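Bench log. Compound arrived from synthesis this morning; before running ITC I wanted a structural hypothesis for how zinc ion sits in the protein. Inputs:
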Amino acid sequence: MKRQGLGARGWGLGLCLLLAASAAFAGVPAPEELFGHRMGADRTVLEWAQVVSYFQALGGASDRIRVEELGKSTEGRPFIVATIAAPDTLRNLDRYREIQRRLADPRLLQLGGGKAVVLVTCSIHATELASTASAVEFAYRLVTEDTPRMRAIRENDIVLLVPSLNPDGVDIVARWYKRTLGTPFEGTGPPELYQKYIGHDNNRDWYMFSQKETQLTVAKLHNVWHPQIVYDLHQHGAYAARLFVPPWMDPTEPNIDAILMQETNMIGTAMAADLTAAGRQGIAIHALYDFWTPSRHYSAFHGGMRILTESASAKLATPITVAPEQLERGNGYDAREPSWNFLEPWGGGTWRQRDIVDDQLIAMESCLYQAAIHREELLENFYKIGQRQAARKSPWGFVIPAAQRDAGATAKLLETLAFGQVEIEHTAASVHVVRMAQPYSGWAKALLERQHYPDLRQYPGGPPVRPYDATAHTLPLLMGVRVETAEAPVAGLAPGILPRKPAVGMPGSDTDSWRVVNAIWARGGAVWRNMETGDFAAADAGAGWKQVARPRIGLYRSFVPNSDEGWTRWLLEQFGFAYASLQNKEVQAGGLRKHFDVIVFPDATAQSMEHGHKAGSMPEEFTGGLEERGAAALREFCAGGGTLIFLNRATEYATEHLSVAARNVVRGVAASEFYSPGSLLNVRLDTRHPLALGLPAEIAIWSEHSPAFATGEAAPARYAEDHLLASGWLLGEKYLAREAALVDARVGGGHVVLFGMRPQYRAQSYQTFKLFFNALVY
Ligand SMILES: [Zn+2]
């Protein structure tokens, strides 16, 4: 590792600074000294404790870096950030934070002299492991190198470097890699989620903030530092472009400011130019990734660009060979053919972790250098974006009335908005108001309004262009909270959220009643339920009330990591349900009725449930699925009076193996005919049915390639004739018309419940949590 330029820099600075600089350099350890290998070397993975020690060593040895623990990860590991800048900047961080705070709010008196703040975040997806190695090497270089670019970065920027947004995942992947190293399974992904609850969905949490890592990043970095740029490093498939960098593809969420998008185009294109000038090939811009869902980025609605790079992967740390004909054609480009946005294709060959690190080091330096040379415009535009957002006139605002069916969901919605720095006011009549005259009005508006996703086709009349993630994010519909648009000003406002009134009783319409019910069960108490209203009571209130026993819940867990399984676990724990995870062997062993009243199968394909990982693709104990023995055990469970719950695509397993009299009417329908890629759809409920207790007659459900059923069995939720789309994008509503979205089938002596939706969607769908909870106590 070079330590060039020290002398030259020192002589130019005068004796005092020379001494300081020399002291700063003495004993700054190079990564090799601590790790014993070059960053990104073949078959090397980093463990989190080593990464933390290295950053602490850097922090102890140099006055250009400060290392801070922000809190603990989900599984208790230190979650750290390194702040890197010129020593003089680091000594005055409070002042720079104050400058940022004022710039972020154009209503305040402004201070000059700010720095460009850039947050760099690595390896949230833990199998995309190279960026943590890049963070280590880049931190060392940024602290020690004296090139004009590195000097410009230190002088003009404040770099907040998070070497991993998912420290637990770093170790889950490192342990698995070491365990399989030198075996036929070297380079496979671990047979578990790489974040305890939500795995790959951990970067789909940026507006609901359900996980600790998201909460720490938003509360302690975004909301404190208001970064002008957030550069988030990822990896995609091995056969795609070697590196993607923005401009993004259409659509852009309409509430994101145009200045921000233009700057993103500018910075991304400059990074692509630097990568190309450095001789790197296979650089794609304006391809693959759209900029629609706020679940993947918080910053773009808070005045900060989101720069994403996606590097082609190796097999974790194991090199691969890519034949030219394996390179793929993706949305907006072809990895084999040059085009304006993919000027120099990479011709194939060996691809290794170090190649990814090399690209990422150039990209990191380039991004930070662009921030440095454009510092003044970025800060001025950041202020302007806030001004433009606060000048939004239509609508005037949103009103959240006090009278709501679900007090728990309403309180959660308000808290969630406030966590995202939305200013909330209230009137004397205890109506909450979100007015648009505020710096983050676009964020509030995006989350409170209905989405109209554009009808994008691959060619006129052709199949839809797949959205990168979901198309709807309307929290009031997801949470079952009534929110009204106000076109005229609301008078008599006072700041803040009103304290929550203590609940009267345990209404069936309040999602939070389930927490209370579970707490009563947990301490051995009894619970009764009114079978008309769904309300709960801790004592028998007489006619119409029925005692509800605490359900013994089994939750199916495959060795194929499944985020929906993790979200289900997370939800059960949040609401205090006791449950046991069931793996293939435990299901196959049979006798399930002795231990369980209900077994839940999260969203997964029937194929993956039945067969799991193919024999020979993983160590033997992780291969296979439920197989025929598992299906037989489930039929026996049902015959014994148990309830089986299948979520979304998992319903196909039930229709194939459990002789449920329901047919999925959209099975096999081409995407150009029927398409529902993460949308909110209107259904009507039969509120007299036990599964719909506590819910209103019309709700929106989360549909994601969801089945709909033609069935003679009870159907507590059905689609109406038309006007099915509530928010997002839907093709082919005629297929859904009048069909069932929720089926309660009698099989043997028990029930099979088919959810043609994701009722526990990503910690958001409070409205349909209640359908799911009702099914658990059925
Ligand atoms: Zn990723």
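What the model suggests: Confidence is low (pLDDT under 50) at residues 1-24. Residues 125, 128, 234 surround zinc ion (CB under 6 Å).
ITC booked for Thursday regardless.
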